Amino acid sequence: MPNNLFRVAVVGAGETGTPLLRKLLAAPFVELLGVADLDPDAPGMQLANHRGVKTTTNFHELAQLGERLDVLIDVTGVPAVRDALRKAMQETGNHHTVIVHEMVVQLMLSLLNGELVSLKHDTQDY
């Protein structure tokens, strides 16, 4: 059955996450449930705060949303984050939420822009 509303959260709110967040916030078929970044002053965190979206510096809080969350997008570029998100889904028995890798985000943004989009990541550890 097709969705008419996608409940989404994003991990990473810097140079890669912010353009994605703008697209998600503009889509009437997306409910943005939360945004996580280590830097509470990251541009995407400020954008989310301004739009009334829950923000956190602990990405585990987004994983704890459970099956209320349809799609959890990881644009950190940090393998340890992706591994921790997968582990959290397994430990809670969440078979509903899909974790989307930054490579898929790069493809989606490139298609939307009509040209290849480069992803930029800081070297912060999580």
TrEMBL record:
<protein>
    <submittedName>
        <fullName>Oxidoreductase</fullName>
    </submittedName>
</protein>
<dbReference type="GO" id="GO:0016491">
    <property type="term" value="F:oxidoreductase activity"/>
</dbReference>
<dbReference type="GO" id="GO:0050661">
    <property type="term" value="F:NADP binding"/>
</dbReference>
<dbReference type="Pfam" id="PF03447">
    <property type="entry name" value="NAD_binding_3"/>
</dbReference>
<dbReference type="InterPro" id="IPR005106">
    <property type="entry name" value="Asp/hSer_DH_NAD-bd"/>
</dbReference>
<feature type="domain" description="Aspartate/homoserine dehydrogenase NAD-binding">
    <location>
        <begin position="12"/>
        <end position="91"/>
    </location>
</feature>
<dbReference type="InterPro" id="IPR036291">
    <property type="entry name" value="NAD(P)-bd_dom_sf"/>
</dbReference>
